[in-house]
Amino acid sequence: MQTPTWFYKKSHPVALLLWPVSQLYRLTVLGRRMAYSIGLKKIHRLPVPVIVVGNITVGGTGKTPLVIWLAEQCKSLGYKPGIILRGYKGESQEWPQLVTPESDPALVGDEAVVIARRTNCPVCADPDRPNAARTLIENGDVDLIISDDGLQHYALARDIEIMVIDGARRYGNGMLLPAGPLREHRKRASHADLVVTNGTVGVGEYGLRQKATTTVNLVTGERRPLSFWRYVLVHAVAGLGNPQRYFRILEEAGVEVTRHPFEDHHDYTSSDLDFSDENPIMMTEKDAVKCVDFADDSYWYLELDIDLDNNFADAVTRALRFTNKGPVNG
């Protein structure tokens, strides 16, 4: 979903009204975490390094591009990474699901298909994260697991935790759900091994910057530089937790944008994108995998990559070396 604007406003009446409910949620979160820490709930430990990437707020922060970057980085260090994720919005009746670039996003989720397309790594979707990881280890040539959005999934033991923060919105009003955007208390950040910030960086955090240079046609596969669209009016489509960030990327590149925000992980139909004119449609890659069946040659998606602080790669290498669970070349 798109997060409510009052999540990011201090002392909003709705947030204050929901504050008592948020305290019940807080007790539930603390109780669940304690159940794992004292052994009431089982923690599954794997024979390979496990990197968990996640956040403590609802809404988009840039986790998936970071997962894609990590996969390539781990390959360069001699690992054979596999990637697991929940398969959010996937409607499969059977789990786990091994994901390929040709998988149906309606079954396994849009993010799973994007990751499979961009990384060429084994990918497995399953709400049961330990089961997904075991499936990859048993079925593929995998010696490292990366979990996308698994920070709160304590059933899977992790060697490295990477927390991602939205540098502009950060922790919002500082309240837990449903009064604010927090899944856990903001102090949870102090327990993560590495904190990456998409935007303005705080003390002890590594900077992440999204960059976009290429657009891709959904039908023909033609690639055009983003600069091609300067001064061109497009319908910008984004089904994201924070669609405004995507719109700003286009606008800062000089594209003339008509904004069309949708709910995060929206299931598109052709009628959703019938804008009754001939202007091209520019969407996110996550949206594009769900529109291939009805797209025409006016449909394009923006291919996003990221830049990270130079010392972040070194920090990941040191953390992996410390696990003593596999080869680190370099």
Automatic annotation (TrEMBL):
<keyword id="KW-0547">Nucleotide-binding</keyword>
<keyword id="KW-0808">Transferase</keyword>
<dbReference type="InterPro" id="IPR027417">
    <property type="entry name" value="P-loop_NTPase"/>
</dbReference>
<dbReference type="GO" id="GO:0009029">
    <property type="term" value="F:lipid-A 4'-kinase activity"/>
</dbReference>
<keyword id="KW-0444">Lipid biosynthesis</keyword>
<comment type="pathway">
    <text>Glycolipid biosynthesis; lipid IV(A) biosynthesis; lipid IV(A) from (3R)-3-hydroxytetradecanoyl-[acyl-carrier-protein] and UDP-N-acetyl-alpha-D-glucosamine: step 6/6.</text>
</comment>
<comment type="similarity">
    <text>Belongs to the LpxK family.</text>
</comment>
<dbReference type="GO" id="GO:0005886">
    <property type="term" value="C:plasma membrane"/>
</dbReference>
<dbReference type="GO" id="GO:0005524">
    <property type="term" value="F:ATP binding"/>
</dbReference>
<feature type="binding site">
    <location>
        <begin position="57"/>
        <end position="64"/>
    </location>
    <ligand>
        <name>ATP</name>
    </ligand>
</feature>
<dbReference type="GO" id="GO:0009245">
    <property type="term" value="P:lipid A biosynthetic process"/>
</dbReference>
<comment type="function">
    <text>Transfers the gamma-phosphate of ATP to the 4'-position of a tetraacyldisaccharide 1-phosphate intermediate (termed DS-1-P) to form tetraacyldisaccharide 1,4'-bis-phosphate (lipid IVA).</text>
</comment>
<keyword id="KW-0441">Lipid A biosynthesis</keyword>
<keyword id="KW-0443">Lipid metabolism</keyword>
<protein>
    <recommendedName>
        <fullName>Tetraacyldisaccharide 4'-kinase</fullName>
        <ecNumber>2.7.1.130</ecNumber>
    </recommendedName>
</protein>
<dbReference type="Pfam" id="PF02606">
    <property type="entry name" value="LpxK"/>
</dbReference>
<dbReference type="GO" id="GO:0009244">
    <property type="term" value="P:lipopolysaccharide core region biosynthetic process"/>
</dbReference>
<keyword id="KW-0418">Kinase</keyword>
<dbReference type="InterPro" id="IPR003758">
    <property type="entry name" value="LpxK"/>
</dbReference>
<keyword id="KW-0067">ATP-binding</keyword>
